[in-house]
Amino acid sequence: MTTLTEQLSNFIVDTNYKALPSDILASTKRRILDTMGVAWAGSTAPGCGDARAVTLAEGAKGVSTLWASGDKTGSRGAAFVNGMHAAALDFDSVYEKGSVHPDIVVVPAAWAVAEQTGSDGKAFLAAVALGNEVACRLGAANRENRGWFFSSLHGVFGAAAAAGKLLKLDANGIRDALGLALTRASGTQQALIEKSLAKRAQSGFAAEAGVFAAQLAAAGVSGPSEAIEGKFGYHALYGAGEQTVIVDRLGSHYESLATAIKKYPSCTANHVPIDLLIETVSEYDLKADEIENVEVEISRFADGLVGGPFDPSSNAQVAAQFSIHYSAASALLRRKLGISEIQEEAIFDERVASLIPKIDVTIDENNNSKFAPAGVRVRIAGGELLERRSDYVPGTLENPLSDEQVAFKFRDCASFGLHPMSTSDADQFATCLINLDEQETIDHVFDGVH
């Protein structure tokens, strides 16, 4: 009888670029573009420069690129740095059903190994699509969370699968890579609730570990053969899950299509209220002094992530990203929340501080979902109450971003970071990324960018 881990391994080995549906290829391209953009912007976020310096100080020789700086280093170090940069602004794509951000782990891992192996664009795209599918299916199967950070916990398996695919491992090799990834699976929400910089490092750790697992497997190092279903495997140790979900319609249905591209650089729990408040103040052309009170209604789950008091004193950017009070105030005041709005000058704006006391958060006890539905009520001068509600998070399949919105986000991201780009340069770079499957190698993608 074929085990679950063997079924996953066979799927990874047997599926190539030509076998992938057009919709999964298009979605994967969009999210690679998005991941590169958010990593570019995140490269100057707190902690990211230090992580880059520590990695380069090792003096590792290699051909893998640190995206935002252009430095070359070993594949594992590059996977770590790029993974951390991509997570830094909390602007990366998310598979809501499994509470996992697959791309910030899988894309850096696959890119680093693709450069190492001289793989072409088609092989790279296939590896990313397959690695993301592994991470998302693990997320879909989970039925409890004991406090693990799922992006790194699931992501390390996706990274190992993608790296193993690019290293041309056979099914036994992929199985070993997944088994070795099990020994490195980790990540904690403690970093999130304390708003420490370790939160953004965890995706980098997982990308690095996934690459190393695949490289060890390629060298002949064996791993546990029942990484997912074993007596002391993934589900036994990390949390109960429905194992059949992991292989249900494997190869004919792609769970990762449900991964959403984020519209705003903040926790997903903020996104529906931000959208609704921007719509409200724009439609009625409201000024801050016309607003008497705002009530934001969210789920208990969302409240646990973003509903606490706003305190930017220790780590302003992370505090802003995980605050519904700050997000709402920015939406009301500026009618936007982009990269500029999570910089310290914007966060400590006195006008924001004056709006926050007007914002109340209530919990919808009948809402057992995570991020949507959510609603807002804005009471304006004269007593009129303006109400809005939405059932879908922007960027999801039900409420997708347009191509122009994705392009706008990339331009915004590319205008920040270590090497800010002009709009025309960003558009040219984006075109190259969207057409990766036409590249014989990805070695020259950064030519003329740094």
What's the SSE blueprint?
Layout: H1 4-14, H2 22-42, H3 48-57, E1 64-65, E2 72-73, H4 75-87, H5 103-117, H6 121-141, H7 150-166, H8 171-182, H9 190-193, H10 198-218, H11 234-238, H12 243-247, H13 271-283, E3 291-298, H14 300-306, H15 316-321, H16 324-334, H17 344-347, H18 350-355, E4 359-363, E5 374-380, E6 385-390, H19 403-414, H20 423-434
Parallel strand pairs: 3-4
Antiparallel strand pairs: 1-2, 3-5, 5-6
Helix pairs in contact: 1-8, 2-4, 2-6, 2-19, 3-4, 4-5, 4-10, 5-6, 5-7, 5-10, 6-7, 7-8, 7-10, 8-10, 13-16, 19-20
Would you give an account of this structure?
The chain is globular, with a radius of gyration of 21 Å. Helices cover 50% and strands 7% of the residues. A four-stranded mixed β-sheet has the order 4-3-5-6. It has a two-stranded antiparallel ribbon with strand order 1-2. It is of the alpha+beta class. The protein has helices spanning 4-14, 22-42, 48-57, 75-87, 103-117, 121-141, 150-166, 171-182, 190-193, 198-218, 234-238, 243-247, 271-283, 300-306, 316-321, 324-334, 344-347, 350-355, 403-414, 423-434, and strands spanning 64-65, 72-73, 291-298, 359-363, 374-380, 385-390. It folds into two domains: 4-262 and 412-438, 2-methylcitrate dehydratase PrpD, CATH 1.10.4100; 268-390, 2-Layer Sandwich (60s Ribosomal Protein L30, Chain: A), CATH 3.30.1330.120. The chain has 20 helices and six strands.
